[in-house]
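Can anyone check this?
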Amino acid sequence: MMYKPQLRRPRLARTRGHKSAFTLIELLVVVSIIALLVALLLPGLQRAKEQARSAVCASNLRQLVIANAAYASDYSGRYCSGAPRMVTENLRRWHGTRNDTGEVFDPRGGPLVPYLGAGAGIRACPSFRDARRGAGAFEAGCGGYGYNQSYIGRVVQRRSNGSFQVVTDESGVSSERVRRPGATVMFGDTAFAGVAVGVIEYSFAEPRFSPEYLHYHARLDPSLHFRHGRQARIAWCDGHVSAERRTFTWQSVFYEGNADRWGLGWFGPDDDNGPFDLE
């Protein structure tokens, strides 16, 4: 009987306790994919976040228009004054009061507060980053919103040379004088260009030219702030709110803050006071 040797199967290496691990290249690939996904998703998330903030801002502005209309119904049809006795006292604004010209304004004393609902007050624009209590924040309390003081927050009448004369700043204009409520600015996103702090609150939405010196074409410094994805929210006298893009800006020699850098300017194709004027 012939002997047949048995073939032994090769013994497999023991794998008990052995754990597979990422190589450095695999780890770098995973990290790169995650970074790419974040880069793709982040702009969309930021846009969605800004859209939500813009919606809140529009709601805040609409509430201010409604409050001013309610104020007018209680005061013989006249809107709230923007800055009564500004030249002689300078202690009151549409958004608040103060006891001394060296203080910031306290929004709790604003004439529109009683019309904004219990405990509501003037809400701040969520997209506005400023130095409210910092150096130069003299208009603190307006929430980053400005009033059409030139034409709505006081009473003016046209002179023969085309400019306007201030009749009184103790009250706003009568609602009956606003002939184009859907095309006349009442409130808007505003700011003031500071030097070291960027932008601070400013409570007036300034037109392109001073109404008092319109015949000289005396241009004002811009205060409309295009902070919502290069857009500004504008509240009109009929209560609707629109998103406007900047079409023009200007830098005077009186202020060191850079208006263009901080997104200040005006909207509209025409270089005039059309969106602010009553006529």
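Reply from J.R.: I decoded it. The chain has one domain: 25-267.
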